[in-house]
Each structure stands twice: as C-alpha cells, then as structure tokens.
Automatic annotation (TrEMBL):
It comes from Aromia moschata. Pfam families: ERAP1_C, Peptidase_M1, Peptidase_M1_N. It catalyses: Release of an N-terminal amino acid, Xaa-|-Yaa- from a peptide, amide or arylamide. Xaa is preferably Ala, but may be most amino acids including Pro (slow action). When a terminal hydrophobic residue is followed by a prolyl residue, the two may be released as an intact Xaa-Pro dipeptide. Binds 1 zinc ion per subunit. The active site is at E340. It is a lipid-anchor; GPI-anchor. Residues 271-480 form the Peptidase M1 membrane alanine aminopeptidase domain. Belongs to the peptidase M1 family. PANTHER family: AMINOPEPTIDASE, PROTEASE M1 ZINC METALLOPROTEASE. It is found in: Cell membrane. Residues 567-887 form the ERAP1-like C-terminal domain. This is Aminopeptidase.
Length: 958
C-alpha cells in the first residue's frame, strides 16, 4: 500500500493514519488475535449486488461464504471475523448442520465472531462452515466494501462499488479469517446489474445474463492469498489495453471514461515494471496470474493498494496528462506503480506472517519503487533521489523516543495502523538498501530469489529472509563480523540508529566509535558497516561495501590516514543507515575541502549527507550551529539538487521551530536567501527543458524556497505568471504551478484571486493532478476568513472537496502560512464533533490535532491546546491524542528556548537591527522602509551581503 504523495505533513505520514478504528477499552484488554489453530484452505464467495446500489438508492447486498479449513489442534469453538456494523448473519451451518442464533455471537469491539460447536472438533480433519449474511456498503468512509460516485461528462451522478481491505477490513465485506498469515484460495460469484462491468483479482471464467436479474459472473480460482488482498470493482469504467507481461499475461488500465486519454503513462510503464521485476526476481509474474488490471478510483483512502492482479489507485496517482501534469507528478505516478507492482512478489506471493513484520512487504516495495523505476528511467536518478527523499527523512523520524522498531508487537487496530508508517516503509527500505551494499548486488539478488522460491504462496518472517540471503552470500559471508541474522538483529528489533563519531588519534589514525542517536535509545549497539573515502584516495566514493566494522563487542575501530592533513568522509554514497560526526579538526579539513571549486572530489550524495547530518547534529546539540553555517558556505557555488534538497530540509526544521514571522525566523530566511541566490539566478524561467528531470526538480526547489523566504524577484515572477493566467485563462508552465499558485495567493491583496483558483479547481474535474496542486495552494492565502471557509468545505456535503482530499485541505492550511496554524486549530476546536462524525474515524481527528501542534511556536498556542484538552468533554481517544500533542508541543518550545539565543548569536540578531555595513546603507534602508530587513555578516562575505541586499532594496522600493 503506497503512502500518499502529499506535501510534508504529519497527518499524512502514514496511509493508515486515518484507518477507521473502534473504541479500544484498554482496561478490559480485549484479545484481537485469532487463536493460531487454523489452516484455512478455500473460500467460496457469493455476492448479490442490486441495481439500487448503482442509483444511490441502496447500500445493501446479500452474500454467502463457504470456507473450508482444518484445525491444527482440538477446539470447542470457531473464532473468525465479521464486523457487526456491516455484516448481519442470517444463517450459519457447520458441516451441513444448521446452528441456532444462540450458538454464535460477534464482539462489537474486536469483530471476532465466536461459534460454539455442538461437540469439540479434532485436529487434521477438513471442515466446512457456510454463512449467509446481509451486507452493508460503507458510504461514509473508503474501507471494506464501499460505494463511491462521480459526475460523468453530462453531469449525471454515477455510482460504483469497490473495496479496500488492508489491513483488517475484509471482515466488513464477508465473514472471514481476517489475518495476513491465513492464506487461502478464493472462488467468487457475483450477481450485479447489466450495464456495469466487473473487475476482480482474476478473469471471469463463466458468465450469464438474465434480462431481469442482470449479470452473473464466476471468477476463477487462483493461488492462495490473505483476505486483505481480495478486491472487487463494479462500475461503468472503460479500459485501455497495454502490452503483454512475460509474453503471455494481459494488462489494462481502467478509469472513468472521461479520463481515458490520461491512461497512457500507466499503460506504458506498467508492463515494463512487471517484466523488470520478473527478470530481477527470477519468478515470472505469469506463473500465478493471467492479467494485471490497474484501476483509478474517484474516492480512495490510500495512495494505492497492491491487490493481487487488481491494483487500485487514487486518480492522481495513476492518471497523467503529459501537457498538464508536472514532472514531479509523472515521477510520483511511476514510482507508485512500481511500488504496488513490487508487492505482487513481496506481499502477495510472499506475505508477512503478521503486521508486526509489515516491513517485509512495505520495505521491499519502497526500495524497489525507486530502484526498479530507475532501470526504466535512469535519467531520473531515482537511486540518488532515494537518499534525500527516504533515507534522510526516516533517520530524522527514527530519532524520536516514540519510534517503533521495524519488528514490534501490534494487536489492536490502532497499533496495526501505526505500523503503516515511515519506519516500516522508509527505514525498511533503507535497511534493505544497506544489506544490498553489504552483500553486493549479485549476492543480494540471488538471496532474494531464494527467499521468494522458498516462501512462495506462504508467509514469511525476517528470519526466513536472513536465512535465504545468507545461503547465497558465498565469499561475502566471510567478511561479515558474525552470522547475518545476528548482524541484522539490532537493526530490526531495536528502534533508533547509530551515530558514528570520528576523532583524531595518534600516528595519523582516526578512531570511530558508535552510540545510539536521538532520544530513548540508550544501550543499543549495532553491527555497523563502515565505508570511507580520504583525500588521498578519492575514487573510493564509488565503493560502498564495508571496509571496516564497528561492532557491539568492539565498540570502536581505527582507520589509518596517509598524511596529517588528510580529510576523511565516512559512509560512501550514504549506503549505511547511520549518521556521522567528526571532531573539530576533521570538520575543519572537510570544510576546507568543500570550499574548493570541485569540492576536492567529495561527491554530491556525500555532500548532501554532510549537510543533512550537520543540521541533525546541531538540533541534537552534537555540534554547533556555527559549525553548520560555516561548513555549508560551499552551497553558494554548489549546483547539485541533492545538496540543496538536504539544505532546505534543514532550514525547514529551523523555520518551523522558531516561526517564519519571528525576528529569528526572518534572519534564518535571509541567510538562506543569500546562500541560494546564485543557484536561483542560474535557473531563470524558461531555461530548463522538462526533459531534464533533475534540472526541473532543482528549479522548482529553488523557486519554491526563494519565494518562501520573500525573495522579491521570485514573488514578482509568481504574481506576474498568475496575473497572466487570470487574463488569458492559460495555465502557467506545468512544472511551475505549485510555486506560482501558492505565492500569488500568499502575496495577494485581492480576495478574488482565491476565488479564481477555487473555480479553476472545480473546473479541473477530470485532471486529478491539477486538482491536487490547487488543493495544496489554496491554503497559502493570508486571509484568515478565507482559510476558515476553505476548511469548512471539508465538513460540508457537496462542497467540491472529496472525502479522500479533506486531509490535504488541512495540510494545505497548516503548512501554507504561519496564520494557517492558528486558523486550523480554532477550526478543530469549534468543529471536532462534526469532523469526527463526518469521517467516522477518531484517528483522523487525532492526526489533525497532532499535525497542528507540531507547528506551534509560542506558549500562547500551547496554553490554548492545554485548555482545549482540559475543559472540553472530549472522547477518550482524542484526549489521549491531545496529551501526546501537548507533550510534543512542549518539547518543541523547550528546544526553542534552548537554542534561540544560540541562533540569535549565530546570525548576530537582537531585537534591534544589527548592521556591519556602511551607515549610508542603513540610512537608505530606513528611507525606503525596507520591511523586516536584517543584514548578516557573521558567516559570509560582507561584499556578497551588500550586493545582494542592495538589489533587494531596489526591488522593494519600486
């Protein structure tokens, strides 16, 4: 299941964050797991979906499930799952013996259906349980078997029925053993009205049509899989066929007919990715499946879902207009497809035994979404983008004392939902990437092939993976400091990451030691693979296999340098999952190397690593901010997208913590503006061809940030392009729209600008990528009443904001402007009951509250949060989330209190303007009334500062 591709926002950090859950009574300690005594073999399912469902008049259907299974030990009861909010049992038989209603019951909290046997059953025998039931389609969320709708080109409302079962919502559609470890085959029969088309995991193998009853399709049996992968779409969608897979298997992309021209990208890349995965794994997709359908659903909760042979997506994550959708959207769609297709092997063919090990599914999918797509689009440099987009972000997340281990226990729906986050996805992928570098690509791939063959059609544990990789390591295994399962144990079972500290020793040696990094990880030790490059052997940056190890039993190691002035950089290409700090002497050598025109051979990924590590080390008080800003002076001449991506992430943390409108925030903004000016000037509008993927991403990054820090030329460009759009109704360049829309609204004094963009949103009904861009931009206005109106659309029926996009609206408001944080919090306080009712999920409300509090920067905001938690009659789940949010907000204020004076000193800022340039310049600044202007020369050239600020003065005075 793909995480949503939205702007950085804690609310959307996990695709499962808004998964509906039921009240969990901690005191009662309900048991959510089934007894591990079942060998489930097959389901025979029958659904009858009436025509009224597709006119919007009904949300009910009838069903029958016959499940064949064995007990692995004697038992007196059967325990399985059925959600009583959606399933009503009408008849139950066991081995052809009818049971009475008093023989079975459903727990309203755990959804466990308990059936009491007339006499105990024995192990090893086959049993048949048949249940007839009345089902209810969900119409208030997008889980289980649910109904969605859309407007066709004539304005008529069309309805469809579709599914989203992961992680635990198959039980909403039919009674079942709803756990990932219980795989079975499925034979499905569906009655549905004529005029609709049906898609299932497999092809239809028999079909009949009755003029009155409609169509009756039977869908063929296939390889065993868990219930969460069963999928069904009944709709009026049309499809476009693509190339065959493995020369035998068909492929197609399906969606609303109005969007048929937007399927080309998915039609093209889908078969390429599947063929590449078949070749890499040595296990052909066609071994199990005879087709691959990709379907865009108008309302869909996650970004996408890996149902075997029937992958479902949000429209914005599948449909692409080459003339209107940005390069970023193209890349996002392609990597989402490769993520879901990777799951056909890692998740579908071989499934994690329980959700506690979901990284076996999601870690591989996240890893290969970059590296398989890199094979098809090498010019996108996705192997490098992985480092800045996934590795850096999850290293930050893993610092928290609340971070989970990759393999950690979970039982309740909330605990399971929490596993679907950046640790399972991004840390899982980063650890897998590290293992590939430890073993070498050929050994790694051979091990994966063994893993898939050994566990095909079954479930697996991390131990199965390490055993398979170890059997194919050959010569590499002798280089490991211990057996592979032992080497990997701390990486999987402990949260956090190591910090390696490099200090100068005697005789040109440096000493490398490890310690746990971040909060709450004391005592953990790892087997850390260390690669490195020195100034006397610069070609080693391409060598990512371990050169030395730091181990738990020997917590330090030494490396010899060839001369007394040599620099050393650890973690070549940032192939290992750890951060690196150096002593003052070694930082000084690195700083001197980076100051050279060619950075003395230090490659761009390691420059990005140095920048990312520096900002992280400073925020955790492991190095000084003086060291950070003096070292990153090299960025003034660096044109690498990767270095700058890392730098802007570091600046984003600082601005979020101190507040962009504070004096310190303005100082930090100005420092970035000065540092980025040459990069910005090197990328004038119209200079980058959209065939240059990295150049395009770099230009968007530069313009987004220069506008964010109030660079006048950038803002003027945004306003000019938006004005032209209003006058001509011709949209700006597809790659520039995000920065144009947002910054035009942020700097607009015309309230009609927001309405114009809202109208553009409503008119782009068939272009999901454009709608997602506009949703993100509409929260950039500084008109607080307009922001409140925008948020109100998320709880208003027929407002134009789809259910799936409500969280994106909150994200837009909270991140768009400093004012948006207070507006969003006030809206939540005033409407939390309506929000909870609208989305039927306390997790949604809790996530919104947590995300807002993440951006609190003042004591007044924290006091209001405390008042809300204490004085309102809140549901227990929200009160608990509020307490956690308050803890986070207080920790952020404590960080600011600790570092604010330090940063003020770094930038030489106080409540009064500090100037080191000429008095004449100050007088000019006063005369021109230059708003919020500070002049900093603490860590950069005063000549550069004066030249830069004089240009700003001229622009601001005009």
């Amino acid at each position: 299941m793909a995480l949503l591709h939205l702007i950085s926002f804690v609310l959307m950090a996990t695709a499962a964050s808004a998964v509906p859950t039921k009240s969990e009574d901690a005191a009662a300690e309900p048991k959510y797991r089934l007894p591990q005594i079942y060998d489930v073999q097959s389901y025979d399912l029958s659904f009858s979906v009436p025509s009224d469902v597709f006119t919007g008049k009904s949300d009910t259907y009838d069903g029958t499930v016959a499940v064949q299974f064995k007990f692995t030990e004697a038992a007196g009861n059967i325990s399985m799952h059925a959600d009583p909010d959606f399933i009503t049992l009408t008849n139950v038989t066991f081995n052809n013996i009818a049971l009475q209603p008093e023989d079975y019951s459903i727990d309203n909290v755990t959804d466990i259906l308990t059936i009491v046997m007339v006499k105990p059953v024995t192990a090893g025998n086959k049993y048949m349980l048949e249940i007839k039931f009345a089902g209810k389609l969900s119409t208030t969320d997008m889980y289980g078997f649910y109904r969605s709708s859309y407007k066709n080109k004539t304005g008529d409302t069309k309805y469809l029925a579709t599914t989203q079962f992961e992680p635990a919502h198959a039980r909403r559609a039919f009674p079942c053993f709803d756990e990932p470890g219980l795989k079975a085959t499925f034979d499905v029969k569906v009655d549905y009205p004529s005029g609709q088309e049906i898609l299932f995991n497999t092809k239809v193998y028999s079909s009949s049509t009755d003029e009155d009853a409609g169509d009756d399709d039977r869908l063929q049996d296939y390889a065993p899989m868990p219930t969460y992968l069963v999928a069904l779409v009944i709709s009026e969608f049309t499809c476009t066929s693509g190339a065959t897979i493995d020369n035998t298997t068909t492929s197609q992309v399906c969606s609303r007919d109005e969007t048929k021209d937007l399927r080309d990208l998915a039609v093209d890349v889908g078969p390429k990715f599947l063929n590449a995965l078949s070749a890499l794994t040595g296990y052909n997709y066609s071994n199990d499946m005879s087709k691959m359908d990709q379907v865009a659903i108008p309302d869909f909760a996650p970004g996408a879902m890996e149902n075997w042979a029937l992958v479902t997506y949000r429209e914005a994550d599948l449909l692409f207009d080459k003339n209107e959708s940005s390069n970023r959207h193209q890349q996002s769609i392609a990597t989402t497809i490769s993520h879901e297709f990777t799951h056909q092997w890692f998740g579908d063919l071989v499934t994690c035994n329980w959700w506690s090990e979901i990284f076996l599914n999601e870690g591989f999918a996240t890893y290969f979404q970059y590296f398989i797509a890199h094979e098809v689009f090498p010019e996108w440099e996705l192997d490098k983008q992985f480092v800045i987009e996934k590795l850096h972000s999850v290293l930050d997340a893993d610092e928290s004392s609340n971070a989970q281990a990759l393999q950690s226990e979970c039982s309740t729906p909330t605990e399971i939902g929490a596993k679907f986050g950046d640790i399972s996805y991004d840390k899982g992928a980063s650890i897998i990437r590290m293992v590939s570098h430890i073993l070498g690509h050929e050994n790694f791939v051979a091990g994966l092939r063994t893993y898939l063959v050994n566990n095909q059609h079954k479930t697996a544990t991390p131990e199965n993976l390490w055993d398979a990789l170890a059997t194919n390591v050959d010569n590499t295994i002798s280089k490991l400091p211990n057996k592979l399962p032992t080497v990997m144990e701390s990486w999987i079972k402990k949260s956090g990451s190591p910090l390696l500290t490099v200090t100068t020793g005697e005789n040109n040696e440096v000493i490398v030691t490890q310690e746990p990094y971040g909060d709450g990880h004391n005592g953990t030790q790892w087997y850390v693979p260390v690669s490195y490059t020195t100034s006397t052997d610069k070609n080693k940056f391409e060598s990512t296999s371990p050169m030395v190890w730091v181990t738990p039993d020997k917590n330090s190691t030494t490396i010899s340098l060839k001369d007394t002035s040599s620099w050393i950089v650890l973690n070549n290409q940032e192939s290992g999952y750890y951060r690196v700090n150096y002593d003052e002497t070694l930082w000084g050598r690195i700083k001197q190397a980076l100051s050279k025109d060619d950075f003395d051979g230090i490659v761009e990924l390691n420059r990005a690593q140095i920048v990312d590590d520096l900002f992280s080390l400073a925020k955790n008080n492991k190095t000084s901010y003086e060291n950070v800003f003096s070292t990153i002076e090299f960025l003034e001449k660096d044109r690498s997208y990767y270095s700058w991506y890392a730098a802007t992430n570091g600046y984003d943390f600082l601005l979020t913590r101190v507040g962009e409108d504070s004096k310190l925030g303005q100082a930090i903004s100005m420092s970035l503006m000065m540092l980025m000016d040459d990069l910005y000037d090197s990328l004038p509008l119209g200079s980058v061809n959209d065939t240059d993927q990295i150049g395009t991403l770099k230009q968007v990054l530069a313009y987004t940030w220069m506008c964010r820090v109030d660079h006048t030329p950038c803002i003027n460009d945004a306003k000019k392009l938006f004005s032209e759009y209003k006058q001509t109704n011709v949209r700006p360049d597809k790659n520039l729209r995000s920065f144009v829309y947002c910054n035009a609204l942020k700097n607009s004094d015309d309230a009609d600008d927001w309405k114009f963009l809202w109208d553009a949103y409503t008119n782009a009904s068939d272009l999901a990528t454009e709608r997602s861009t506009i949703i993100s931009a509409l929260g950039c206005t500084r008109y607080t009443s307009t922001l409140t109106e925008y948020l109100n659309k998320t709880i208003t029926d027929d407002s134009g904001i789809r259910l799936q996009d409500a969280a994106s609206v909150f994200s837009s408001v909270v991140t768009g402007t400093p004012e948006g944080v207070d507006v969003a919090f006030a809206f939540l306080v005033g409407n939390y009951q309506t929000i909870e009712k609208k989305y039927k999920s306390m997790n949604s409300l809790s996530s919104i509250l947590t995300s807002i509090s993440e951006r609190f920067t003042t004591q007044e905001q924290v006091d209001k949060l405390k008042e809300f938690i204490e004085k309102k009659d809140l549901p227990a789940e929200l009160k608990s989330a509020g307490a956690e949010a308050l803890e986070v907000a207080n920790s952020h204020l404590a960080w600011r209190e600790k570092f604010e004076e330090v940063l003020l000193d770094v930038f030489d800022v106080s409540s009064a303007i500090k100037v080191t340039t000429s008095v004449a310049f100050v007088l000019v600044a006063v005369v021109l009334n230059l708003r919020n202007m500070y002049i900093f020369v603490t860590w950069t050239s005063s000549t550069v500062v004066n030249k830069f600020l004089l240009e700003e003065l001229v622009l601001n005075s005009s």
